[in-house]
Design a protein that fits this description.
With about 220 residues, the protein is an alpha/beta fold. Helix content is about 35%, strand content about 20%. The strands form two sheets. The chain has a seven-stranded mixed β-sheet, sandwiched between helices. A two-stranded antiparallel sheet has the order 1-2. Strand 1 and strand 2 form a beta hairpin. Helix 3 runs parallel beside helix 4.
């Protein structure tokens, strides 16, 4: 009897959630983001959420090179004319680092990674600061990965379209929810050279598990790992 009652309640809940109205947020030139399928599922992703456009004002790209291995320089995709006043060298390859949930772009392990990359190769190393989007509630942070990915893609497409930079010279290295942001960036670029996903949101997080393989498509980059 208890089992039957539980099944009836779950069935009723499934039916109600299936008819939930989708919402949408439109974020400047990055387009509109809907909560409709596949970003909503009554069983696996039952909470409606879309990116918070106001977060765009907090996103930053921080550049390190061998000329400035410690002090970063900010690259603003909305002010590309300022790229020339930085050490960004478009004759070299580029690594873009995207941190994960409850992490910060300038925490020691990311600084260590920057140092290791620059020790190994003379490249541009760029870290995405999307700190204010990687906080609780978790479901909102999940939604904001789409906005973070679109922001990174805007930057890459500026390099490609305005400076002739080949996106296949870019390696996106990401962790946790940052992997999902990296995948969304790759989806909007034709196409980045490599995306590395370290512990991509963990399949133990049920609301993400059904979407990991859908997000991380080899069609979005030359190599995915």
């Amino acid at each position: 009897m208890v089992r039957l009652t539980c099944l009836l309640v779950m069935g009723l809940l499934f039916a109600v959630l299936s008819t939930t109205q989708a919402i949408e947020s439109c974020c400047r030139d990055l387009g509109c983001f809907s909560s409709d399928a596949p970003f909503f599922h009554p069983l696996y992703r039952p909470v409606i959420s879309v990116p918070k456009c106001s977060l765009l004002d907090t996103f930053q790209l921080h550049l390190n090179t061998r000329l400035n291995p410690i002090q970063t320089q900010v690259l603003d995709p909305y002010q590309p004319s300022t790229f020339g006043s930085t050490n960004l060298d478009l004759s070299k390859a580029t690594a873009i680092l995207i941190h994960g949930f409850t992490d910060l772009w300038d925490w020691p392990w990311w600084s260590d990674m920057v140092a290791a990359i620059l020790r190994d190769a003379d490249v541009n190393v760029i870290r995405l600061n999307w700190d204010e989007a990687t906080v609780l509630p978790f479901i909102q942070s999940v939604a904001d990965t789409r906005l973070a990915g679109a922001f990174v893609a805007k930057f890459i497409n500026i390099l490609k379209d305005e400076h002739g930079y080949n996106p296949q010279r870019i390696h996106i290295i990401s962790h946790s929810l940052g992997v999902h942001a990296a995948a969304y960036a790759g989806e909007r670029v034709d196409k980045v050279g490599r995306i590395t996903g370290l512990d991509p949101g963990s399949k133990t997080k049920l609301i993400l598990s059904r979407f990991v393989s859908w997000l991380f498509s080899v069609s979005d980059c030359k190599v995915s790992q």
